[in-house]
Design a protein that fits this description.
Strand order of the largest sheet: 3-2-1-4-5-6-9
Order of helices and strands: EHEHEHEHEHEEHHEHEHH
Strand content: 15-25%
Shape: globular
Helix content: 40-55%
CATH class: Alpha Beta
CATH architecture: 3-Layer(aba) Sandwich
Length: 265
């Protein structure tokens, strides 16, 4: 594993940070990607010191269309062999669809979708040449849920990401696996950054899970080559129910447990 690295986007906080910690604990060298250079430097130093691994970082804003190219160029110039790719970075828009500018929508779509495809396209060719690799796409339970008036594009994009991850199973013959990790409500700064912390605060505690637990179950599923991982028994049951209960009924129940998601715009 001397020159093998795991690359994690959105690695400075939340689920991405916890995934980085889990992988470091397992002895994997890391390349951390996020916007905050200072935070990345602090995390990198901590993980390399605590776990005796190599850790490097690259500050990148994935809302910019050329960011995946710059990330790949950075790892190529350093001769880092990326055999684990974790597409984790993400955020959502808080306003109703008709209130967001097209520029805002495009930037969000780049982070949630286009950058995932671009980075995967870059590194999958190297994985084919090297005889294998593992890909994780951090998706969401929103991929299975009824459409929401809140963050209206978030769920559809996550559904798309699940299907994209599934399509990568055709590369299993090259030793490459892809895992879509679909957490439910997770306690991170995601909701504050996305402007929906008030809605998150109203969610019952039994539905909220720690980023550490999501990371541990997600990494375990990725290492086992599972196609889909819904962390925690609570959310596994909810996703199962989503497949058999009419969406109209689920929207009613969800509206009571998590007010705001199905309000009229």
């Amino acid at each position: 594993m001397e020159n093998k690295f795991a690359l994690i986007t959105g690695a400075s906080s939340g689920i991405g940070l916890e995934i980085s910690k889990v992988l470091a604990k397992k002895g994997h060298n890391l390349i951390l990607i996020a916007r905050s250079k200072q935070k990345l430097e602090e995390v990198c130093e901590e993980l390399s010191n605590n776990h005796n691994i190599k850790c490097d970082y690259f500050s990148s804003d994935l809302t910019l269309i050329d960011s995946p190219d710059k990330i790949y160029d950075f790892t190529s110039q350093k001769k880092y062999d990326v055999d684990i790719l974790v597409n984790n970075a993400g955020y959502a828009l808080s306003n109703a669809f008709h209130k967001n500018t097209m520029e805002d929508e495009e930037k969000c779509l780049r982070v949630l979708g286009t950058s995932v495809i671009a980075l995967t396209k870059k590194y999958i060719n190297d994985m084919i040449s090297d005889g294998g690799g593992k890909i994780m796409i951090v998706s969401s339970v929103a991929a299975f849920a009824p459409a929401s008036s809140l963050q209206s594009l978030y769920g559809p994009v996550k559904t798309f990401m699940n299907r994209f991850s599934e399509s990568l199973s055709f590369y299993n013959k090259y030793g490459i696996t892809s895992t879509a990790v679909c957490p439910g409500y997770t306690v991170t700064n995601f909701h504050t950054a996305s402007g929906v912390q008030a809605e998150m605060d109203s969610v019952p505690n039994f539905l909220k899970k720690s980023a550490k637990r999501i990371a541990e179950e997600g990494v375990d599923a990725m290492m086992k080559g599972k196609k889909v991982c819904v962390p925690t028994k609570t959310w596994k049951i909810i996703v199962f129910l989503l497949k058999i209960i009419p969406h109209s009924v689920f929207r009613l129940v969800s509206g009571l447990l998590a007010p705001g998601r199905y309000n009229e715009v």
